[in-house]
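It is worth pausing here to work through a concrete case rather than discussing structure prediction in the abstract. The textbook approach is simple: state the sequence, then state the predicted structure, then interpret. We follow exactly that order.
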Amino acid sequence: MQELELKYGCNPNQKPSRVFMEDGSDLPITVLNGRPGYINLLDALNGFQLVKELKIATGLPAATSFKHVSPAGAAVGQPLSDIEKKIYWVADDADLSPLACAYARARGADRMSSFGDFISLSDVCDESTALLIKPEVSDGVIAPGYTDEALAILSAKKKGNYCVLKIDEAYTPAPVERKQVYGVTFEQGRNELKIDDALFSNVVTKNKEITAQARIDMAVALITLKYTQSNSVCYVKDGQAIGIGAGQQSRIHCTRLAGSKADNWYLRQSPQVLGLQFVDGIGRADRDNAIDLYIGEEYMDVIGDDVWQKTFKVRPEVFTREAKRAWLDGMKDVTLGSDAFFPFGDNVERAHKSGVKYIAQPGGSVRDDNVIETADKYDMVMCFTGIRLFHH
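Step two, the predicted structure:
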């Protein structure tokens, strides 16, 4: 298939719309079920590049949850703890393959942002992974292949309209890429930068000890940033992105946004949240929204006198700012990646509040000395990669 006609482009008024290969060759994707849209395909093709690189860099199966051409979550297939199973709504007795673990982490770390996502998987989708995808609100999935059981499960979603794409794993794009803006054609070499341990060799802080897990987490952070709309910052813990700040004009706003998402991920593991007693029959999205409100500043919207009964069997106590800070102080050994240099030490100060121990960033600011000094103050390990990772 050399061309795929689409219903419309980014918006319903943008017609005609299609994807095709300029050189007349076959598309590297096959539609197995459903009908993908323009944005679906942008998410799918960006997402698959991300998970393919994660698999190469770590040797582990990888998954990502994409929304509006940026990842809401990304992870490699490391085992889930019992608490992670609870906050990701995974059954205690679920039989999880490594790929299923990667998907549960990618989808679960920021469930609010992942709602209605497009999923990318590095490996053949198995039944274990498909069963996790089945109850979630999602637009579609792309993978190198599907087992018969997985394809049957996924093809039944959305009344049979769920989008299932297969990609040719051997496909290699041209070394030069083009796009048009306002009728003007832009051309550049593809970003084929290989992200591996060599990028983490220039450690500029006094503390130079990078653990094996931190190296995996640095790779997850930088590869995620490589396919995130810039400016962007990514917090990673145990092989999964726990907070992604994308598309902000200011670096510190990226760091704050991503940090607040990382904080929410950790707050969801607190006894106050794990102990919430929801009413019977509440949907996943309503439950996720209620938790997000409860741990935020607008908590009275969900536990107020006249509303709490709609969500909870027992009215929750207020999760005070002091109690939240006390819990967050237990957040340790987080890794942070940035797609461009930190211009000031304030980014490191904010990162410290979310338990960051390891930082990977390009370096090259006129204030590098201030940034390094701030990292040393908290005994952090920071490496300068020398490589910028802007993506637009």
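Step three, interpretation. The two ends are 28 Å apart (CA to CA). The chain has 14 helices and 15 strands.
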